[in-house]
Specification:
Strand order of the largest sheet: 1-2-3
CATH topology of the largest domain: Rossmann fold
Order of helices and strands: EHEHHEHHHHHHHHEHEHHHHH
Largest sheet: 3 strands, parallel
Shape: globular
Helix content: 55-70%
CATH class of the largest domain: Alpha Beta
Structural class: mainly alpha
Distance between the termini: 30 Å
Bound molecules: tryptophan
Number of strands: 5
Number of helices: 17
Amino acid sequence: MENNKPVVVSGARPTGRLHLGNYWGTLRNWLDLQNKYDCYFFVADWHALTTGADKSENIAENTREMVLDLMALGLDPAKCVLFRQSDVKEHAELTLLMGMVTPISWLLRNPTFKEQLQELHKAKYKGQEDKMKKAEGVTKQLAEAHGEDAEATALHSDMAVIGFLGYPVLMAADILLYDAKFVPIGKDQLPHLELTRDMARRFNHMFGAQVLNEPEPLFTSSPLVPGLDGRKMSKSYGNTIFLGEEAKSLEAKVKKMYTDPLKVKLDDKGHPEGCVVCAFHKLYNPDWQARETECREGKTGCGACKKQLIELMEKEVGGFRARRAELAASVDVEKVLADGAARARAVASKKMAAASKAAGLI
Ligand code: TRP
């Protein structure tokens, strides 16, 4: 590990059991990166609190589940530093310092904050508009003053806590502590990375020292993974397939997958684009092109197509389940995380000391 490979940092929130969207979108890349770079991967449990403090009772358990899932996928604590964010207090400490140089206006402009806040606010009070008005309580007048401006109204929501607004500040600290050269992210996280760069630059400029290094995004290719219903696979849509989905329920889920509504009879000509079953053939079937041709020509029905997919997927998912069960019985997750935290801390504490010194503290 002690070498001159560029540093890569990435985190994922402990959302519980991981699904195939997580795998194809992000984690498959982590497996690759651990062999090429000096990687710091962590479970972002503090980040989980920024929008979910009201349902935080599962964070510890979700962290354990996630670490086991990651290891069963092949993430190897001997090849990368795997740790839990809240075990390394320097993440909080640097967040505090970065907060001193981050104008609130930057955070208010953050598109992720604006969009998510409105969604959260609406979701929380879905079907209880009267309650929503009440929750807006003292600030109701303010909300009314904003008229139909949903964005401004949401800002007065009780979901708009400082930790949520400061999400990118914590994320910047995560990254800057380790001198990350690259941060593998999806396009949705790009505004956060831009903010990280802005904060690093402002910090260095303000304190007249070159302490924090600006990271670059690493856009790794990832196929689009639809959920069962054709929307993006996401836990909040309830359309996921878990990495270790049980055989029976895998079968039931594939059978439920959205297919081309114009293909009703076996010999109807199908349209693979937009068909979820076809999208998964692309991921799990080396001969997916032949399948698509047959579909287009009306030579196969959706039932047969699904049946083959179930077999192909069960091979992978079944293998995962076995590895996962073995690890769950043999690995001391807390020990893995403690070891990872010690290695992360060794690096983070040095950077923290340099940042404190630059800021005039010691
Ligand atoms: N914001 C990221 C997400 O939701 C998770 C994350 C937290 C992260 N800290 C990070 C990603 C640092 C990369 C680097 O996906």
